[in-house]
From TrEMBL:
Keywords: Amino-acid biosynthesis, Aromatic amino acid biosynthesis, Lyase, Pyridoxal phosphate, Tryptophan biosynthesis. This is Tryptophan synthase beta chain. It comes from the Bacteria. InterPro entries: Trp_synth_b_CS, Trp_synth_beta, Trp_synth_beta/beta-like, TrpB-like_PALP, TrpB-like_PALP_sf. It comes from Marinihelvus fidelis. Its cofactor is pyridoxal 5'-phosphate. GO terms for molecular function: tryptophan synthase activity.
């Protein structure tokens, strides 16, 4: 049975200043330091509080629908001709993605801190929907920032957020995607810092967000570890998860970091190809720098300006990555690879036709690499792919690519 100890043990990273090796930290204006100090103190207190954790675990079980199952994708495995592919089914969660794990946690924390106004930013819309859902349940006001481009390609999720009572604010600056939505949310937080809680949806941003979001999502890896031991009596040989900011990947990876026989692969968006410059692969093709309050790998030009990114999946279309991933890359504990748009689209069709599961385009990047990896491994080995979200939200995008109008 989970308890407060699940959220307060095994914490070699980050250090007391929020650094994962050379990465992380809090690179923000003085205006935000008080709010971050307040959040650090609150998270440090409540993660040790048994009653708070009991409420969190109750909501994860009875509202989110945890534990999500692991599923042996036998037909997909047979088509690849190598290792057995298993899927961690985060797409079966309430609201359809892993994002709800973190928003349930941050929503409860905001309640404990007496913050009734909630702001968030979203790319694919799944984090926005999850935040709006929790706000509706906890009677909190909700404002979601979203790039104009993402609003157009994720219209279903925009409508869902509005039905839930959230105000969706369109961001028209820059590339009009997730990076710019995050900038606007930061500006809102600085302006309304007394009564507002900022629910960041990924393992990026200033300390303590990378640690806190990881901890709320680590339920994915704890469950997967236990489920694989129960069903196969051994751990998987490899973990695969997509990486934009990196929240679903850190949620899966974290409980396995000490299991050095288990290889870990993070899959970034190669977009139209790494050699075209039209991608979102910060770890595969970027370099260290500071973005949105933390030091990490990012994509910039020779003048240090953040460059525009591209991915068919809105949730991976981000020019940075969580600092713990940067640390895992440099330490060699995890490997980071890239899958292009067409490979992700092919994987979407393969999983849908062979297993009857329509994955989110973000998750399809992990499925595509999991298929490649499995083909190189023995049939007695296992690749566990985190299916971070379902693809209902991407139906219009998929139809548009095929030249269809719904």
């Amino acid at each position: 049975m989970p308890g407060a100890s699940d959220y307060d043990i095994g914490r070699p990273q980050p250090d007391a200043t929020g650094h994962f090796g050379d990465y992380g930290g809090s690179y923000v204006s003085e205006t935000l330091m008080h709010a971050l100090d307040e959040l650090r103190e609150a998270w440090s207190r409540w993660r040790k509080d048994d009653e708070f954790i009991r409420r969190l675990d109750h909501d994860l079980a009875h509202y989110v629908g945890r534990p999500s199952p692991v599923y042996h994708a036998e037909r997909l495995s047979a088509a690849c001709g190598g290792a057995q592919i298993w899927l961690k089914r985060e797409d079966l969660n309430h609201t359809g993605a892993h994002k709800i794990n973190n928003t349930v946690g941050q929503g409860l924390l905001a309640k404990q801190m007496g913050k009734r106004r909630i702001i968030a930013e979203t790319g694919a819309g799944q984090h926005g929907v999850a935040t709006a859902t929790v706000c509706a349940r906890l009677d909190q006001d909700c404002v979601v920032y979203m790039g104009e481009t993402d609003i157009k390609r994720q219209s279903i999720n925009v409508f869902r957020m509005k039905l839930l009572g959230a105000e969706v604010r369109s961001v028209t600056s820059g590339s009009k995607t997730l990076k710019d939505a995050l900038n606007e949310a930061m500006r809102d937080w600085v302006t309304n810092i007394d009564d507002t809680f900022y629910v960041i949806g990924t393992v990026a941003g200033p300390h303590p967000y990378p640690e806190m979001v990881r901890d709320f999502n680590a339920v994915v890896g704890r469950e997967a570890r236990r489920q694989m031991l129960e069903q196969r009596e051994t751990l998987p040989d490899a973990l695969v998860a997509c990486v934009g900011g990196g929240s679903n990947a850190m949620g899966l990876f974290h409980p396995f970091i000490g299991d050095t026989d288990v290889k870990m692969y993070g899959v970034e968006a190669a977009g139209n190809g790494l050699d075209t410059g039209e991608h979102a692969a910060s770890l595969c093709a970027g370099r260290p720098g500071v973005l949105h309050g933390c030091r990490t790998y990012l994509l910039d030009d020779d003048a240090g300006q953040i460059v525009h990114t591209h991915s068919v999946s809105a949730g991976l279309d981000y020019p940075g990555v969580g600092p713990e991933h940067a640390w895992l890359k440099d330490s060699g504990r995890a490997q980071y690879v890239a899958i292009n748009d067409q490979e992700a689209l092919d994987a979407t069709q393969a999983l849908t036709r062979l297993e009857g599961i329509l994955p989110a385009l973000e998750s399809a990047h992990a499925v595509a690499y999991g298929m490649k990896l499995a083909a190189e491994m023995r049939p007695d080995q296992v690749v566990l792919v985190n299916l971070s979200g379902r693809g209902d939200k991407d139906v219009e995008t998929l139809a548009g690519i095929k030249g269809l109008s719904l």
